[in-house]
Design a protein that fits this description.
- The protein has two domains: 5-12 and 258-379, Alpha-Beta Complex (Aspartate Aminotransferase, domain 1); 17-252, Aspartate Aminotransferase, domain 2, CATH 3.40.640.
- Helices cover 41% and strands 14% of the residues.
- It contains 13 helices and twelve strands.
- The protein has a seven-stranded mixed β-sheet, sandwiched between helices. Strands 9-10-12 form a three-stranded antiparallel β-sheet. Strands 1-11 form a two-stranded parallel ribbon.
- The radius of gyration is 21 Å and the shape is globular.
- Keywords: Iron, Iron-sulfur, Metal-binding, Pyridoxal phosphate, Transferase.
Amino acid sequence: MSDRMYFDHAATTPVHPRVVEAMTPYLTQVFGNPSSVHGFGRDARKALEQARDQIAAFMDADPQSLIFTGSGTEADNLAIIGGAMAQRERGRHIITSQVEHHAVLHACEHLEHAGFEVTYLPVDETGSVRLSDLKEAVRPDTVLVSIMYGNNEVGTIEPIEEIGTYLREKGIVFHTDAVQAFGVLPIRVRELPVDMLSVSAHKINGPKGVGALYLARNVPIDPIVHGGQQERKRRAGTENLAGIVGFAEATKITAEEMEGRVAKYRQMKSAMESVWKEAGIAYHVNGHPKHVLPHIFNVSFIGVQTETMLMNLDLVNIAAASGSACTSGSLELSHVLKAMKLEDSITHSAIRFSFGITNTVEEAEQAARSVVKIVQRLAR
């Protein structure tokens, strides 16, 4: 066990050694452009399509339905902006939730500037979207709904099957940001009532800078990146071949290990809670008690401000987070906790621990004991 403990796997994960190994030949020997017709290009194209097949198999998708992007954020933008623009003649109303990742929220804001109207659904105190609120928000001109699969801050799993089933009946395109759920929940798109689904490699021990969008057949989309015929004219730009090969290897490893990882993450949560209960410190677990991502553990330590706790943890070499990595550099209050309308004492003291392959149950207990020491010292 190293002296530094990393509990921020929801922000990014270390690249698996097997992924590095799989990528290396595509950074050194197989360097051709997959769009070139000569032998170098054909070798690259073959590797690209093998990787596509592998990632598609992991989520039970048709390989042709996968569009490679430069990130999960780009996949969200392509789904929302591309999906809305392709249907703008049909209607200009979009629905999302108040607890989405900023990749979704900012894409929706962009569309508001382009003349679309967006409804931001509220959530309950567990962070769940209510189907009744969605039904109420749907209008004749609603063309797209985007609700995340699992929340990146509190881990709440949204009722996307119920939402998707309802939207299918209405003929409304449904996108889900599955970036956090991918790799910890079994995702089979053929069984899910979703039309578009975003994923990212660096959340599952793959490289940064590569994501993918699943796009169901006959779902209209306008490209948002222009300049080439790549990805069946849906996303221009030379594919990040080494990154995509790394992504495929990461999905392969995840498929082999997912069950064991999830069991370990659950064990880590209960180990941490046992330490806190025994010490008798005041804490509150945020998010849904049952429908929650196994690797995300959002806890408020009443009486200790979020930033104070994070700084004190960092001093003892424990990395945790306040919320999304895209905003945790700022001292703003989490928009997710705000939307859940929790008491100030809870929202101002929330910490996110997120687990990954480098963590052990012993480490989790050690981190929990460090929290106890910090809380008790500050109380004095």
